[in-house]
Every structure is written in structure tokens, then in C-alpha cells.
């Protein structure tokens, strides 16, 4: 009976941990996706241009990137829990002030602070998972977390669209504030996964300096570049989606959020499917090929003003390819940077949001039928090329190891 109770308690702890890690990793999609249906409304409310409204998405991603680079190294020195609680508190305060924004400049500035606060949840969720798991178990945990957190891109725009049907855009940020408070309170229950004896005995500045040897790690460097290129394309698509679906194809905010949710659900499903491949590398190979092909289809569909069914089929396939890339890419990068898990998670995540911060405002320039396609195809080509370069380097290393083995046998 004691063993049964102990096993039940352990399962509860594991379930709570997985749900919390997934929720924390889903924080970024909530910050970036939940208010997407409100873009056209906010353009009218603030009397702003499309690019100015999209700038709020950009500054939140800049905040997410900078927060990664600060909070990640600090967590290697001071542990995961205190930085997590502080960042969630920052998010809650920034969300409260977003609700009170009266002009686009104030809103854009507060979005930076909101992104900075949200970054703690994302970077530390990856770090905690890496502290507790390794190898294939880490890949499985990342896939499970990715699938669960894949619900966030599904729910967030749907919730945003529903809220807009009976409340102004400020209602979306009230819900974000509530989510932040719930996660802050729940995080007190999380165990400290990086105990004092495992922390590096060095100054904060030296902790930041560890980025140099980290970036010398070929495997980590390439997977980080792949992440950046992939997210350059993906965030460009996210930023353009509200205007394409609502202003080009004439869907309502709620209809857009439902379609967006179905596409996002595909990411979670394919993230779970990625563990069915023999190796993570095989999933990435399939995913990057699908991602490139579908990105070209999306660009052509937009340029040719294709019927919605053709455009949506291309977008759905693009999400499927992205899902196959997502979980194995994170697992391989974090395994490579295990010695400095907090910093590795910080750099890896920062690359994602810097890339997204660059592409998001660009899609607002020029024609809505041309610019998003250019951004999408460019990022997909670079993602595919980086994956090919990883495979080429792996084959060279395998041949070198084989030659060394033969030479040793001859001796």
C-alpha cells in the first residue's frame, strides 16, 4: 500500500511537472498569438498603420530575446526558480499596464516588457527539462511538452477571437494577466532542478562569457541557426496572417482564429509524430523538405490570388513540416549545450525571437501578396540548407571516425 501511494504521488509530481513545463513553454505563443485577431481593430483604435501595430509583435519578441540572454545565464548561477518567479511577476505587471495603453508608442514599449517577462518561462522550461532528462528521454519529454504546448497556438487566437466578440481588445490582455498570475502562483510548487552543488562558481560576467565556448560547439551552433531561419519564416507568416485572412479573404476575427487554431494544432500533432522516426535527424530531414515545398506553394498561392482552399492547404502543410522540425531540433540543440543548459536555452531561444522580430515588421512593407511569400521562402530555403549542412558535416565526422578506427586496427 505504501508503494502504491508513493507511486501515485510520483506520477502526480511528474504530471504536474510536464504540464507546468508545457505551460511555461507555451507562454511565448500566448504572448505573440493571442491578440493576432485584434490587429485590424487595434489599427483603428490607435489610428496606426499596419507596420506600427505589427511593431508591438516585434518589440515583444525583442523582449523575449533579450530576456533569454539575461535570465538564462543568471539561472546557471542562481538556480532556476528565483529567476522564473521574478520574470513572471514582471510579465504580470507589464500586462496590467498594456490594458491601460492610450497610444501605440506606449503599447509598443509595454509589449517589450511583457515579452521580457514571458521569456523566463520559455528559457527556464527548456533548462529544467535538460536538468532532469537526457538523450532519448529528453527527446520524448520535449515531444510531449511540444504537443501539449502546441495547444497554446490553437487556444490563444481562438480565445482572442471569442473575447473580441463581446469585449474590446483590452479583454485579451486581461486574460493574459490572469494566465501570468496563475503560472506565477503555480511556479512556487516547482522543485529547484539546478541545486547549489551543480551551479558554476563564477561571477555573473563570467557566466555570460561562456557564450564563446558554447558557440564553438558546431552541433549547437548549426541547430541554433536552423531555429533562427525557421522562425524567421514562421513569424513572418504569423504577422501577416491576420491581414491575409481578414482583409484579403474576408474572414471575421473569430473565423480567422479558428482556422489559425486548426493549423497550429497540426504543429502539436506532428511534434508527437516526430518521435516515431528512427532518429531525430530523419524527422528534421522530412520536416525541412515539407517546409520548403509548402512555403513555395504558399508564396505562389498569394501571388496568384489563389482560392482560399488552395492557400489554406499550402499553409496547413507548412505547419506540418514545422511540427516535424520543432521537437527534435530543440532536443538536439539542448543535448549539445548540456554543460551550460541555462545559457544554451537562452541563446537558442534568443535566436528564434531575434529572427521573428526582424521578419514581423518587414511583412507589413510592400504588397501583402508578395512580401510575406518572399519572407517565407527565404527562411525555408535557409532552414533546408542548414539541415543539409548538418548532414554533410555528420557524414564527414563519421568517415573520419571510421578511418581512425581502421588505422587503430592496423596498428
Description:
By secondary structure, the protein is mainly α. It has one domain (17-192, 203-410): Growth Hormone, Chain: A, CATH 1.20.1250.20. It has 17 helices and no strands. α1 packs across α7 (135-149), α5 (81-99) runs antiparallel to α9 and α12 (218-248) packs antiparallel against α17. The longest helix is centred in the C-terminal third of the chain and has 40 residues, at 371-410. The N and C termini lie far apart (60 Å). Residues 1-13 and 401-409 have low confidence and may be disordered.
Secondary structure blueprint with pairings:
Elements: H1 2-25, H2 27-33, H3 39-45, H4 50-78, H5 81-99, H6 104-132, H7 135-149, H8 151-164, H9 170-187, H10 204-209, H11 211-215, H12 218-248, H13 253-273, H14 280-303, H15 308-336, H16 341-362, H17 371-410
Helix pairs in contact: 1-6, 1-7, 2-8, 3-4, 4-5, 4-6, 4-16, 5-6, 5-9, 6-16, 7-13, 7-15, 8-13, 12-15, 12-16, 12-17, 13-15, 14-15, 14-17
Largest sheet: none
- Overall CATH architecture: Up-down Bundle
Seen as an oligomer or otherwise, the chain set is single chain
What is the 3D form?
globular
* Structural class assignment: mainly alpha
Number of domain units: 1
The ordered H/E elements are HHHHHHHHHHHHHHHHH
CATH topology: Growth Hormone, Chain: A
What do we call the CATH homologous superfamily?
A: MFS general substrate transporter like domains
Mean pLDDT: 82
Q: Provide the helix percentage.
A: over 70%
Helical segment tally? 17
